[in-house]
Amino acid sequence: MYHNQGAPTARPRRRRARRLLPLLVVLGVCGLGPVPARGQSPLDKLDPKTTPPLERFDWHPKELVAVVGEHRGRHGHPVTSVAIAPGGKLLASGGTNGIIRIWDRATMRQQALLGAHGGAVLGLAYFPDGKTLASCGSDGTLRLWDVSGAAPKARAVVHAASGALNSVAVSPDGKLIAAGGADTTLRVWEVGEKEPVKRAEIAAHTGAIASVAFSPDGKTLASASADETLRFWGVAEEKVKERFSFKPHGKPLTAVAFAPEGGVMATAGTDATVRLWNVRASPPKEGVTLQKKHGVTYSLAFGPKGSKTLATGNSDYTARVWSWGLNPPRERCVAAGHANVVNAVALGGNARGQAAYLASGSSDWTVRAWDATLLRPKDRTIVTGHWSHTYSVAFSPDSRTLASGAEDRTLRFWGVDGYGPKEQYVRKKDAIAIYSLAFQRGGKLLAYAGNDVAVRLWEVKSQRELPRLAGHPAGVGHVAFSPDGKQLLTASADKVWLWEVESAKILQQLEKHTRPVTSIAFSPDGRRALSGGGNYEIKDGKIVYKDGRPVYVDCTVRLWDLETGKEVHVFDKHELPILSVTFTPDGKKVVYGAQEPVVRLWEMDGDKPGKMSQLKGTSGYVWTVAYSPDGKSFATVGLDGKIIVWDAASGKRQREWVFPEVVYRVAWAPDSRHLAVPCGTGVVYILRLAAE
User: Fold this and answer.
1) Rg for the chain, CA atoms, rounded
2) Which of 23-32, 163-172, 366-375 has the highest mean pLDDT?
3) Which of 332, 419, 454, 504 is the most exposed place for a label (fewest CB within 10 A)?
4) What is the C-alpha separation between 119 and 99, in angstroms, rounded?
5) pLDDT at 25 over 50
6) Around Cβ 278, how many Cβ atoms within 10 Å?
7) Going by C-beta distance under 8 Å and a sequence separation of 6 or more, which residues neighbour residue 211?
8) Percentage of the chain lying above the pLDDT 70 cut
9) 366 DSSP assignment
10) Sheet of 2-3: strands edge to edge?
11) Within 13 Å, how many C-alpha atoms sit on residue 420's CB side?
């Protein structure tokens, strides 16, 4: 975890190889070719003192001179759960990356990061005293966190199920915890001094349990399931017993919640309705249907006692607050601004008992805090920059502009030659996640591509798109301009194509790979190219395993003659996928990294490899190998996000940084002294290496 007031003490656990490999298509390295550093760079004007206070953290390295974009509200993956702490000062969010983030609700400045779940965090619940946070996830674990101090820490871990736990709830007195799972089982624990003590484990439904909730008096537990039933359980006695059940929607259920006043319950289902029920009656009596036109509701949260408010998180990208105490109930306000489904909501109150603030978590990778007292809620987390993972960045040849492409389907240009990065232009019309981009030599054009079949050519000065390069059979993960800017390499699935930029014609099709190409690179003279790849062996539609491990195929680095389109050499075949390939700026070596902690450097005698050397000490996979334009240094990025800058001549480490965020790539500036680091939260860091 890391905290606002301290250095990182532990790192969030990374996904297993099976979860990481779908990301390999975004890991190519694109460059401008060797550009010697000359004199002072415009980037030297960047002053770290101009970074806004909300974007400064104690773990930032001394070399950090600029933060491009903002941290506020960026979770780093789709947000699947949110919870507001008692008192309303803190807000917790959980996502599909297994990470829990804790925020200052008023400023949305991150206070702590907890990374322990091996899959999506599907449920969060604070204890009534606010000192403990419960979480559950797709890894089947229930976890308790001590959040009483400035440095939250793990308190207990219960390996409860082999499948996902979809929802967690804490009783009003803080003595019981309940969780519902994908295995249809309802689990109830008593809170012990150390680990929770199991009270009940019941095969409660015939479908996955989507949501669980305690009644205000703590005597009843409700479970809502995909089998269309809502079941009520008595938990006041030692043995948990079912009281009754019914089908409130006649469709699979998505959420259930009790009003704090007692006697009122809300349910949501895939029939796209939210319904209120009088639970004093047996069976419950339907009161009213709140909404029928906002898509499926995935989350429900009542406001504080006396406010008679209810928040809904919806598939139409909105969160809505309803006044249910009126006759008839009416929509109070709409929180609109998310760019994807709202998966989770929480509603908090002020000192007067009003529903004053709303939290929402979305598949757009953001968590947001809203002032809910207004008819049009004010978003406290309106952000500049990317909302989600920035996959690729590149400096313009004159170093005055940084281009970035991200999962949020935007291409952004930033002015970085002044005293703080400023967003110059945003392109949002493509509706593609952008995996790779590169400036043409001279900076006239920018090529970029992502999860569709066309490569875009963008004329930077006029801000217009040229005719697209179309024809690839699948999404294009990598683009790279030739050193003279006249040709472009593109890679898609198992194909690498060479294009003439001016005519948009295909010059060569390099098609020896049988698995996805993970990286491409031009030689400094533009006559040769490298490609690397590899992925699972598939048989009868399933991944092949040997000795309990997946088998990979086509884990090769290939050298191509671009004049003839012929493969001239295949470097040693590997058992694990190649992740990054490049030439040294003088063209005398081929360098690559793979899904292992080794960088390989081959000396080249024409088209024939000579002596091979290795550098060890990287962390797990070598996501990226990137040489500085002057050839004196190169940078690697490891599995744990560690960035190492190596001396190219001696192979010794010059600098190391570890960021508490997902990092796959780095990009050198033309001056060979500044390094851009795109992060999984959408921000980009610019580091300055002191002159040697």
Assistant:
1) 27
2) 163-172
3) 419
4) 9
5) no
6) 12
7) 166, 167, 180, 223, 224, 253, 254, 255, 256, 257, 300
8) 92
9) B
10) 2-3, 110-115, 99-104, 90-95, 79-84
11) 8
Q: Which residue has the tokens 């008096």?
A: 217
Give the CA-trace dihedral at 645, 647, 653, 659, to 10 degrees: 0
> What tokens does 60 get?
């930032």
CA distance 348 to 449: 42
In this structure, the chain runs to a length of 692
Q: What's the pLDDT tens digit per position in 671-692?
A: 999 999 999 999 999 999 975 4
Contact 685, 677 (CB under 8 A): yes
- At 28 the pLDDT is 45
Burial class, 376, CB count within 10 angstroms (exposed 0-12 / middle 13-18 / buried 19+)? exposed
Range scoring the smallest mean pLDDT among 33-37, 287-291, 293-297, 664-668: 33-37
Does residue 171 surpass a pLDDT of 70? Answer: yes
Scan for tokens 């760019």, then name that residue: 339
Under 8 Å between Cβ of 299 and 345:
yes
Q: Which residue type occupies 246? A: F
The answer to whether the beta carbons of residues 279 and 273 sit under 8 Å apart is no
Which distant-in-sequence residues (6+ apart) come within 8 Å of 233 by Cβ? Answer: 186, 202, 204, 220, 221, 222, 223, 240, 241, 242, 243
Collapsing DSSP to helix, strand or coil, 387 comes out as coil
pLDDT tens figures, 568-619 = 999 988 999 999 999 999 999 999 999 999 999 999 998 889 999 999 888 7
71: left (phi over 0), alpha (psi -120 to 50) or beta: alpha
**Neighbour tally for 540: CB within 10 Å:** 5
Beta bridge partners of 532: 519, 557
Residues contacting residue 138 through CB under 8 Å, at least 6 positions apart: 117, 118, 119, 120, 122, 163, 164, 165
* Nearest one of 269, 70, 84, 81 to 165, comparing CA atoms: 81
The tokens for 249 are: 């929607």
Q: What pLDDT, on the 0 to 100 scale, is given for residue 328? A: 82
Report the C-alpha gap between 402 and 138 in whole angstroms: 38
Q: Which of 181, 200, 91, 103 is nearest to 142 (CA)?
A: 181
Beta bridge mates, 242: 233
Max CA distance (Å), the chain: 86
| Average pLDDT value for the chain | 90
Q: How far is CA 107 from CA 54, 148, 382, 666, in A?
A: 8, 20, 11, 30
Cα(191)–Cα(28) distance, integer angstroms: 49
Q: Residue 251 burial (CB < 10 Å; 0-12/13-18/19+)? A: middle
